[in-house]
Amino acid sequence: MNPLTFAARRLGAALIILLILIATMFTLSHLSNTDPAHAYLGAGASKAAVAAERVKLGLNLPITTQFLHYVGNLLHGNLGVSYRTRNPVTQDLAEYLPATMELAFYAIILALLLGLALGIATAARWRGARILKFVMVSGASAPLFLLALLGILLFYGHLGWLPATGRTSIPNPPTGPTGFLTIDAILAGRFNVLLNALQHLIMPATVLAIGPAVSIGRVLRGSLVTVLREDYVRTARSKGLRDRAVLLRHALRNALGPALSMTGLQAGLLLAGDVVVEQIFAWPGIGYYAAQSIPVGDFPAISGVTLVLGLFYVLINALVDILQRVADPRVRA
């Protein structure tokens, strides 16, 4: 199949999944016991005011019409108004999303690096591979909240090496243009902010990355062990190439496909765990925003966060499928 056709089919499948997610969120909003009009106006609103607000929100229209309006609003970037902040959810997400994306970006990069190290070291039986495997599997076996709390107690409370909460402790950090504090600090020439931001990133990013890294590493190891038994690998060795060169130059590329697929799956789990990690580390992202919205039944905010995370999840998986096809042309639709 042509690579462009393959990419188009994967993106089309991602669109269908997004439509199903949108329909699910719309259904849940109508199954909820919370009256959107009453929740927006407050507990003291009169029945007349609530009835007028329901008409204003279009809640008196047929359910199919409401769904079409809901989809139309989403296409125009209208996710509703938060009951808690009284701001448009889109505005709130624009404020909180960059922090989450920065944390997720570094966590995924760290998961890939640790996964590659674990997979290659254990497949090649390098010295120290067993210790690396023991440490990573032990960390991945612990619940996220426990791993986060242990990290805070050890690296902040006992050793004092790393900060425990927040995104930075330096006042008036740069706020643009990318929204990634580490990049904005470099662009502004404020390297003290860069160092401080990286220190704040280490613990939450590691907590998020350790579980996905083990899964990626295990899949990569299994794939490498299989590939290393292939005839072309034996031929490369017979030509006098060192084992490390054979592994890195010849076997690794053909073994990456399953690991890339696992990366896409783990990215979704990483984003799901983001809510817990941001709450513990007081990281000002959409996970923290959602955690504050859940207790007060702020459904527009919860729905907005869910849709954004769902969007990233399906796009990451579609991208991984496309990259897998590039890495290994033998892959078929």
Explain what the structure shows.
The structure is a single chain. With about 325 residues, this protein is mainly alpha-helical. Helices cover about 75% and strands about 0% of the residues. It has 13 helices and no strands. The longest helix is centred in the last third of the chain and has 38 residues, at about 245-280. The model has no long low-confidence stretch (mean pLDDT about 80).
Compose a concise summary of this entry:
This protein has 333 residues and is an all-alpha fold.
Classify the secondary structure makeup into a structural class: mainly alpha
**Measured distance between first and last alpha carbons:** 8 Å
The number of strands is 0
Number of helices: 13
Give helix and strand order, one letter per element, not per position. HHHHHHHHHHHHH
Report the portion of residues in β strands: under 5%
Largest sheet: none
- Rounded mean pLDDT is 82
Helix content class? over 70%
Q: Report the radius of gyration as a whole number of Å.
A: 24 Å
**Contiguous runs where pLDDT drops below 50 for at least 5 residues:** none
Q: What would you call the shape? A: globular
Annotate the secondary structure layout.
Elements: H1 3-31, H2 36-41, H3 47-56, H4 63-75, H5 89-124, H6 129-141, H7 144-158, H8 181-187, H9 191-227, H10 231-238, H11 243-280, H12 286-293, H13 299-327
Helix pairs in contact: 1-13, 5-9, 5-11, 5-12, 5-13, 6-9, 7-9, 7-11, 8-9, 9-11, 11-12, 11-13, 12-13
Any key phrases for this structure?
333 residues; globular; 75% helix; 0% strand; mainly alpha; 13 helices
